[in-house]
Amino acid sequence: MAKRYRLPLTLAALIVGLDQCTKMAVESHLPLNHGIPVIKGFFNLVRVHNRGAAFGFLNRPDITWQFWIFSGFALFALILVLLMLRWTRHPGLTAKIAFGAILGGALGNFIDRLRLRYVIDFLDFHLGQWHWPAFNVADIAICTGVLLFALITLFPRRWN
Questions:
Q1: Total tally of structural domains belonging to the chain
Q2: Which pTM does this prediction carry?
Q3: Helix/strand/coil for 158
Q4: What is the distance between the alpha carbons of residues 61 and 52, in angstroms, rounded to a whole number?
Q5: What is the pLDDT of residues 64-100, one digit of tens each?
Q6: Would you call 139 a catalytic residue per the annotation?
Q7: Residue 50: how many CA atoms within 13 Å on its side-chain side?
Q8: Which residues partner with 37 through β-bridges?
Q9: pLDDT 10s digits, 25-69
Q10: Other CB atoms within 10 A of residue 37 CB
Q11: Whether residue 112 lies in the annotated active site
């Protein structure tokens, strides 16, 4: 395996493993739409099924086309990130971490879509009336990877 792929693919595999293990634990220990308070008034573990995109966008059980659209987007993202990793002349450490995080997160959610036709979300943060939509380990990896990629793009000398 080429040196440029070693870290990103290893990181992606670790993220997929952690993502799938946490989702399986949630599946086996929490009933659908139930939660366990971890930090009262701030953080719960819940089990929700997300048929839509990140953070519940278009999460509606009465439509089925979003499965095909979001599965296609995930497949496109996987291919695009692999091509970007291949075409980047000298990817630095931050770029390799960004690519690996995006790959791992996209693949983790893609596996759910293929296996279940929805994504399992379970991290639920709220504060007073403010409530963030539930998310999972794969979502964290994707957001982190995109943030790192944005920093590399905006500030190449500092972050690459």
A1: 1
A2: 0.89
A3: helix
A4: 9
A5: 667 778 788 889 999 999 998 888 878 889 999 999 9
A6: yes
A7: 26
A8: 44
A9: 999 999 999 999 999 999 999 999 988 666 555 565 666 667 778
A10: 12
A11: no
